[in-house]
Amino acid sequence: MTPRENPTAADPAALTALERTALLTAALRAAESSRADRLYTDPYAAGLAGAPGRELLAEIAAVTGRRTGTDGTDVPSTPDFNAIRTRFLDDRLRHLTHEHGVRQVVLAPAGLDTRAWRLAWPDGTRWFEIDRPALLGHKGRRLAGRPPQADLRTVAADLTGPDWEESLRKSGYDPARPSVWVLEGLLYYLPRDDVRRLLTRIAACSAPGSGIAADLVNTAALTLPHMKPLLSVFEGWGTPWVSGFDEPEALFDACGYTVTALQPGDEGADFGRWPDPVPPRHVPGEGRVFFVHGSLRAPR
Ligand SMILES: C[S@@+](CC[C@H](N)C(=O)[O-])C[C@H]1O[C@@H](n2cnc3c(N)ncnc32)[C@H](O)[C@@H]1O
């Protein structure tokens, strides 16, 4: 156990290092919500993040503030990336539920995400939040008395463990009905084989046509010198980024999905917050973030 995995008085829910990354994400959403030009408003984020989340964000902000790169370009920051990711996924979920009739949403993992509370969802939307038990316990305590705007079902499980599908089904998930799955802020913490296994398992319990959305980084993002300060912070927390994929379309294709991969700054993933040119996919050696969205093909 690393020192950061030890429960402390400042961490009442005794979260592990990986679970604590959800505090960071909540702190990022709180910071975005206080901006005049915010891309969304999360009124719960500040309370969920608390002082521990703000401390984690301060460590990240110290190494990723918007700055000038060695080649003179303006390097966007983790907060900009995170704001775009949240808004991009908000829009995907609204589109699939309100316009395409999907009534099962699965956040895998949920972390301290509050979309079920802060956004309006169509009647009959079942909202499944999978995460580890301690994290869901912490979230439940913090949001007690605040009703969600969907039929919320929590599923305390490990997504790399043997039986989360059974727990999900027992909580009311119907694999025969269309669903949309969101894998936000997870995949780079998992080894490559675990990523493939997870996508395959999700496909196996999803109806054809079901949606999926996720964020990933490419392999260069794990090794480029200008990424080192950020990567070192995550390593120091005991939560290193361990996997990247250069061809996310191929990764998802092998698991049964047809997807589109956008980079921040691409049309549909910009929102006026990514002023830099997007490096074309064929240019080697660029660090990349991908926002992936698509759907499960019917079996042939
Ligand atoms: C960076 S947070 C992102 C959470 C959420 N999607 C969001 O955007 O706020 C990462 C989350 O992944 C969860 N997590 C990591 N590995 C997991 C696993 N194997 N099974 C279930 N949850 C996991 C952690 O508990 C944490 O809540």
Written overview of the protein:
By secondary structure, the chain is of the alpha/beta class. It has a single domain, classed as Vaccinia Virus protein VP39 (Rossmann fold). It has nine helices and nine strands. Strands 5-4-3-6-7-9-8 form a seven-stranded mixed sheet, with helices on both faces. The protein has a two-stranded antiparallel ribbon with strand order 1-2. Strand 3, helix 4 and strand 4 form a beta-alpha-beta unit. S-adenosylmethionine binds next to helix 1.
- What percent strand? 15-25%
Radius of gyration, Cα only, in angstroms? 18 Å
Average of per-residue pLDDT values: 91
- Helical content band: 25-40%
N to C succession of SSEs: HHEEHEHEHEHEHEHHEE
Tally of DSSP β-strands: 9
- Give the number of domains: 1
Question: What structural class do helix, strand and pairing data support?
Answer: alpha/beta
In short:
The protein has 300 residues and is of the alpha/beta class.
Which properties best describe this structure?
alpha/beta; disordered N terminus; single chain; binds S-adenosylmethionine; 15% strand; two-stranded antiparallel ribbon
List the helices and strands and how they pair.
Blueprint: H1 17-33, H2 45-64, E1 67-68, E2 74-75, H3 78-99, E3 104-107, H4 115-118, E4 126-131, H5 133-142, E5 151-156, H6 164-170, E6 180-183, H7 192-204, E7 211-217, H8 228-236, H9 248-254, E8 257-262, E9 289-296
Parallel strand pairs: 3-4, 3-6, 4-5, 6-7
Antiparallel strand pairs: 1-2, 7-9, 8-9
Helix pairs in contact: 1-2, 1-3
The structure holds S-adenosylmethionine.
S-adenosylmethionine (SAM) binds next to helix 1.
